[in-house]
Amino acid sequence: MLIKIKKSYDLSENDVTPEQLFRARRRFLNIGAASLSGAALSGIAGGIAGSILSAPARARAAGAPLATSKWSGSTDEAPTDFESITTYNNFYEFGTSKEAPRFNAEGFVTSPWTVEVAGLAKNTGTFDVWDLIDRNKLEERIYRHRCVETWSMVVPWVGVALADIIKRLEPQSSAKYVAFQTLFDPERMPGQKRAVLQWPYVEGLRLDEAMNPLALLAVGVYGQELPPQNGAPIRLVVPWKYGFKGIKSIVKIEFSENEPPTSWNISAPNEYGFYANVNPNVSHPRWSQAKERRIGEFLRRETLMFNGYADEVASLYSNMDLEKYF
Ligand code: MTE
What DSSP state is assigned to residue 201? Predict the structure, then answer.
C-alpha cells in the first residue's frame, strides 16, 4: 500500500526491540471488587462505569486460547489458513513488506496494555484492555477481509461488538465520530523510526458506523489471542471497509464532534478517503477495485459492494455520493 516512499525495507536487528517486560507496570485500575451489574462510578479521575470494571487486569501470554461463542452472522466461506493470515500482513510500524511484521513484531510485549478513552463521553479514563473487553462476551466472527491493494482473505476473528463498548463508555450527544490511535513507541515499533507515515497511525469512524453491529474490536484470531503482527492486543475490524481502517494495537479511543484525521488520508488524500468503503465502482488511482485476489486462490473474484455486507450497511450511506466520499 506504500506508494510514495521506498516500497519495502528490512529493519536491522538493532531496530527490533528484544522481548522484555514493561519495567513499570502502570496499573491504572485496581478494581477487583467492582460489580458486574452496578452502574456506580468508581476508579480514576474522569469516572469509569462500574459495569466496565469487571475484573482485575490479567497478564496473558500472546497466543493464549480464548473461549468464544459462535456468532450467527459469520460468512460460510472457507477461512483463509492461519499461516497466511499471520505471515502476510500490513503493519508498517514493523516494516513495509508483507513478510516483515511477522519477524519484526516477534517479542512485541502486549501485556499489560492500557487503552485511554478520551473526549466527548461520560466514562473517560484509562482502562486495562481486559477491563474494557469482557472475556465472557467474546465471539468468533468469520468476516471477509479486503485490502485496498486488492488482496482478500476470510478471517475468523475473535472479539466484541464495538457498539457494546461504546454504549458502556456513554458518548455525549455532541459526539459524532470516534477516533482510534495506535501505540507510538519507536523503540518497540521500529518502523516508526522512519517517516513512512505520520506516526502514530490514526483512524476513525462516524459514530453511526461504529455502532453498526458488524464493527468489531478484535482481540483474537482462530480462537487464540492475536499475534503481534495482526494487531495485538486489540484492533479494529470493519469488514465492509478496506483493511486500512482496521487500526492495530490501539492505545486510545476518542469521541469527537468533528471528523478525525486518518493516517492514509493524511499521507495521500486523493487516494484514500475517510470512508474507504469497499466499492467495485470506485477505483483507486493505481488499483481498479472491480476484482480481488483471494489469498490461496488462482482466479480473481468480483469485488462485492461493501465487501458483501451491503444489506447490513448500505443504509448508512444512502444520501451520500460514494465517489465523492470514497
Ligand atoms: N494498523 C497500523 N497501526 N499500522 C498499519 O500499518 N495497516 C492496515 C491495517 N491496520 C496498518 C494497520 C492495513 S493497510 C491493512 S490491509 C490491515 O491492517 C491488515 O491487517 P492484517 O495484517 O491483519 O491482514
Answer: P
Q: What is the largest CA-CA distance in the chain?
A: 56
Residues forming a β-bridge with 241:
277
Q: Is 92 in the pocket of ligand 1 (CB under 6 A)?
A: yes
Distance CA 24, CA 129 (A): 17
Expressed as residue numbers, the domain containing 47 is 18-315
Counted domains in the chain: 1
Share of the chain above pLDDT 70, in %: 81
Q: What is the pTM of this model?
A: 0.84
Whether residue 22 is contained in a domain is answered as yes
Grid cell of 324 as nine digits: 465523492
> How far is ligand 1, taken at its centre, from the CA of residue 30, in Å?
32
Average pLDDT over residues 34-54: 27
Residue 277 lies in a domain: yes
Interval 137-161: pLDDT, tens: 999 999 999 999 999 999 999 999 9
93 C-alpha to center of ligand 1: Å? 10
Inside any domain, residue 56 = yes
- Domain harbouring 259, CATH code: 3.90.420.10
203 falls within a domain: yes
Q: 250 in ligand 1 pocket by Cβ < 6 Å?
A: no
